Amino acid sequence: MRPSAFSNKGEFFKGNLHTHSTNSDGLLSPDLVCKKYKEKGYDFLCISDHFVGLYDYPITDTTKYRESNFTTILGAEVHSGSMQNGEIWHLLAIGLPKDFKPSNSPNFVPSQEQETASDLAQRCRDSGAFVSIAHPQWSGLTLNDAETIEAAHCAEIYNHGCAVDSDRGDGAYLLDLLLSQGKKLNLIATDDAHFKSGDFFGGWVEVKSEKNEPLSLLKSLKEGHFYSSQGPKIFDLSINREELNIESSPISSAILVGYGSASLASHGDAMVRTKIRFPPGVERTNKTPWVRIVIIDENGRKAWTNPIWTNEL
Questions:
Q1: Do residues 115 and 198 share a domain?
Q2: Nearest-CA neighbor of 174 among 105, 84, 300?
């Protein structure tokens, strides 16, 4: 079985889904943000400014910066409701329409008059957006919090800005707990760039799409036809009940992660074709309901597949 990111028609397009501009709390104007990502070789970008009244509820219009080899998807980082720690929710909504109705969120402080984060996420999804739980570690998100967001397509497994500025950029632990409860969530790596520090060009998605156009990219995101990376590339991947095969840029490690403590790994130097055989009789590996694959290069940079549900193998 080859996951759809590697079996579907099309090509991989590199994009960042979480970025801020001067329309909210970013340092650079939307045109400069788009210019920087284009010059760095990105194929697409979403400027996801904070959707609160403090900034006049912006859905930053980047359509005029689209070119033949670079496109943009409209979206926002939306906020409403209170997490268990008393702070307001942060959700990414990629593909929001320009006329999306604002939540009652005048600033970054939750209030009783607001809709719940669950309801806001559902409204975003119903409007056509690709919805993600943002920076769970930075937010102090609990498992109980995350379980309330039924409309999410994914969660951030890596947020570069949070890693750079607070050492809280990881989402793997929370994601694995949700997967182990049967939640079918995918995962994304993002920048969350504000350009006030080195919070850019550190995490992205590689989306398999037939066209580098907003609707085609958005469809592929919703259907899970992508993987996420800090640097390594995955060219092909296949898995069955006996073994995992990966073709990639040179890596030092490939790790299969599953339910509980389940994991298998292969380590070496500059590996580009990696095989992991599943030993018979190892119950914690063979009976996991889901697995996901991580590859790591010699500089410690990672790439992640979306979860694979083993009943589909």
A1: yes
A2: 84
- Model confidence at 279, in pLDDT bands (50, 70, 90)? confident
Range of the domain at 13: 4-229
Q: What is the DSSP letter of 23?
A: T
Alpha helix (H) residue ranges in 29-130? 30-39, 117-126
Pair type for strands 226-229 and 302-304: antiparallel
Is pLDDT of 285 > 70? no
Query: Could you give the CA distance from residue 303 to residue 296 in angstroms, rounded to a whole number?
Result: 7
Residues 225 and 239 in one domain: no
Helix (H, G, I), strand (E, B) or coil at 152: coil
Q: Return the ∠ at Cα 265 (arms to 259 and 271), rounded to 5°.
A: 140
Q: Rounded to the nearest 5 degrees, what angle is found at the Cα of 204, between the Cα atoms of 203 and 209?
A: 170
Looking at the DSSP bridge assignments, the partners of residue 155 are 133, 187
What's the one-letter identity of residue 28? L
Mean per-residue pLDDT over the chain, rounded: 96
Number of domains in the chain: 2
Return d(Cα 310, Cα 155) in angstroms, integer. 20
Strands 44-45 and 186-190: unpaired
Question: Cα 134 from chain centroid?
Answer: 8
Q: Is 201 found in the same domain as 244? A: no
Check whether residue 55 and residue 18 sit in a common domain: yes
Give the chain's end-to-end CA distance (angstroms, integer): 6
Distance of alpha carbon 310 from alpha carbon 204, whole angstroms:
26
The residues, ordered by sequence, that sit 6+ positions from 228 with a Cβ below 8 Å of its Cβ are 157, 158, 187, 188, 189, 203, 204, 205, 206, 303, 304
